[in-house]
């Protein structure tokens, strides 16, 4: 019988409602995947989805055209997104995702 490995992704907090000019942080954790690629996306009210950051490995985050956010990958399972100063144009749904080496 083939062995099936359970993979989970957890984004926290699940939602944030904050005032403008405050800082915010989202965390993402993947379990059961071996050194996955990890991504942060956002979807604004128009429905368009924008890739914010891609991390191919721990300690490695690709450059992003998004200047008011930063991302950090401290280990193979964790990827965080943060901003020092929220503004109204940051209103969106933010998604963390993962894939096996660029799938």
From TrEMBL:
Coiled coil: none annotated. Signal peptide: none annotated. The keyword Signal applies. The keyword Ligase does not apply. Pfam families: V-set. Keywords: Immunity, Signal. Residues 2-103 form the Ig-like domain. This is Ig-like domain-containing protein. It comes from the Eukaryota.
């Amino acid at each position: 019988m083939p062995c099936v490995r359970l993979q989970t992704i957890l984004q926290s907090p699940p939602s944030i409602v904050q005032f403008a000019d405050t800082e915010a942080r989202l965390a993402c954790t993947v379990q059961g995947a071996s050194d996955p690629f990890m991504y942060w996306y956002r979807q604004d009210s128009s429905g368009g989805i924008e890739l914010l950051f891609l991390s191919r490995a721990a300690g490695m985050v690709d450059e992003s055209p998004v200047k008011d956010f930063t991302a950090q990958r401290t280990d193979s399972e964790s990827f965080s997104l943060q901003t020092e100063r929220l503004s109204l144009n940051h209103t969106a749904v933010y998604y963390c995702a993962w894939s096996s080496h660029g799938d």
